[in-house]
Specification:
mainly beta, Jelly Rolls, homodimer
Chain lengths: ~120, ~120
């Protein structure tokens, strides 16, 4: 059987929890995860890896220590490893995350917003 | 300075050549490349790596030895390493490729459609 297409809209319809990334595909040891977010996340960094965000729906703000960036659908940003950041969305925003297997959503910060890994949908 | 958002539409307006991927971002040793394609590509595989395609505009067909897959905007497919495939687009299609640095567009096939590497836009 050939590999299957993965439709972002279909996959996004399968969950509603915020700040709880769902795994949709793997590329070697990298993972593609969908997340729905709203409000403020915690300041954190990923000391071991860069992290890519692609905006699918809604608007995302990422605060950095030296300024904030606004992102809209059809935009990509790569947060370099070790760089502190804090995602924020005024209204619900859907994003695609690309990062190595095992990357925690809260990075080095931990805490109660730390999501379970490898929740396939 | 915080990292900059990368807008796919803006970047796609900067080139018109077909089958000539342009580098827009790096994530560790992985690369994000935009490509515009039309017509038939060559059968090839990537013996060392999986390869991800995200469709941005238009429709893409990927032929595999055991069947073909049609993809539309908002869809992702991961072609596993070593699996022969042949992209095809009836009309122009814009795609985002995600793969390790150094991955050739023609994989193990080579030939005149082999594109130059690391053409940043």
């Amino acid at each position: 059987m050939p590999p299957k297409p993965i439709n972002f809209t279909d996959k996004l319809s399968k969950f509603s929890e915020h700040w709880s990334p769902r795994l949709i595909a793997e590329l070697n040891h990298y993972q593609f995860k969908l997340a729905k977010i709203v409000g403020d996340f915690v300041w954190h960094s990923h000391p071991e890896t860069d992290e890519a965000f692609i905006i699918l729906d809604g608007n995302l703000v990422i605060e950095f220590r030296d300024g904030s960036v606004e992102l809209k659908p059809g935009e990509l940003i790569v947060v370099p490893k070790g760089v502190e950041h804090k995602p924020y969305a005024r209204e619900e925003c859907s994003i695609l995350l690309i990062e190595p297997r095992g990357t925690l959503n809260t990075g080095d910060a931990g805490g109660e917003l730390t999501a379970e890994q490898d929740k396939w949908i």
